[in-house]
Specification:
7 strands, globular, 18% strand, binds NADP nicotinamide-adenine-dinucleotide phosphate, alpha/beta, 7-stranded parallel beta sheet, 236 residues
Length: 236
């Protein structure tokens, strides 16, 4: 197990994260970052809350990095937080929390992990269709803005780190059955006709694309965003 490549991940407690870990776990040593304790063979969990300022949670990461001096082969950022409300009702704290969990944590972790990335490491960020579209499930401008920030991060990191053969890509899920996706019957009824496949997606259908981007099967892809949304908004 100790010889397996190291993957550092956020958001691994979500249905998407669990589906990903289930898919890749036997081949990787997983370091999970977040609030929910995760355990299993080859799994290390570091407690951190990305709503806090990075100054609060960074020491846990740097202490672990300096102690273990890992050779990090992959980083997956799947942590997400959405407060779905009108802009007028969204507080400054909610805005800051959405930026912290969705975007700032990705940037700060990428910066901390960079010296430990092996040549050819893979980075995958989980965005959302909300980066491009306002959802009929309800307004969430702060969430959409944070996910749009990830779009830029993928493109810029891919350019910056390409000379080290580090590949950086993103997946943009549409509406999922699990997690923070639209759950009420009325929202589903409004949404599903706008999805070409006429159904919401499953977490494992996104996890399989993340696993593809982590694998050698995508060896000539970097700076790409892959929509995994069943063909949302293809018609007008
Ligand atoms: N569900 C959908 O329909 C949908 C659609 C588009 C995109 N996405 C994206 O897909 C990913 C998974 O979505 P989901 O709906 O399955 O998520 P979810 O069930 O709401 O889980 C959110 C994940 O983010 C982590 N997280 C949240 N707040 C955190 C905090 N303060 N500090 C550290 N970690 C935090 C959680 O880890 P802890 O348990 O450790 O807090 C958890 O693993 C997210 O990036 C989400 O934005 C989801």
């Amino acid at each position: 197990m100790m010889d397996h490549p190291v993957i550092v991940g956020t958001g691994l407690s979500s249905a998407l994260g669990r589906a990903l870990v289930e898919r890749i776990a036997p081949a990787w040593q997983v370091v999970a970052l977040g609030r929910t304790p995760l355990e299993g063979p080859g799994m290390t969990w570091l407690s951190m809350d990305f709503r806090d300022s990075p100054e609060v949670w960074k020491p846990a990461m740097t202490t672990w990095l300096e102690r273990e001096k890992p050779r990090v082969a992959a980083f997956v950022h799947g942590a997400g937080l959405v407060y779905s409300d009108h802009t007028e009702a969204t507080t400054a704290d909610e805005w800051t929390s959405m930026l912290g969990v969705n975007l700032t944590s990705a940037f700060v972790l990428g910066k901390l992990l960079s010296p430990y990335f092996v040549e050819g490491a893979r980075v995958v960020l989980v965005g959302s269709v909300d980066a491009r579209y306002a959802s009929s499930a309800g307004p969430a401008a702060g969430y959409g803005a944070a996910k749009a920030g990830l779009y830029g991060l993928v493109r810029h990191w891919a350019a910056e780190w390409g000379a080290r053969s580090i590949r950086v890509n993103g997946v943009a899920p549409g509406a999922l059955e699990e997690g923070s996706g639209p759950q009420s019957d009325s929202v589903r009824a409004a949404l599903e006709p706008r999805i070409a496949l006429r159904r919401m997606g499953r977490a494992d259908e996104v996890a399989s694309v993340v696993a593809f981007l982590l694998s050698d099967e995508s060896s000539y892809m970097t700076g790409c965003w892959i929509p995994v949304d069943g063909g949302l908004n293809l018609t007008y």
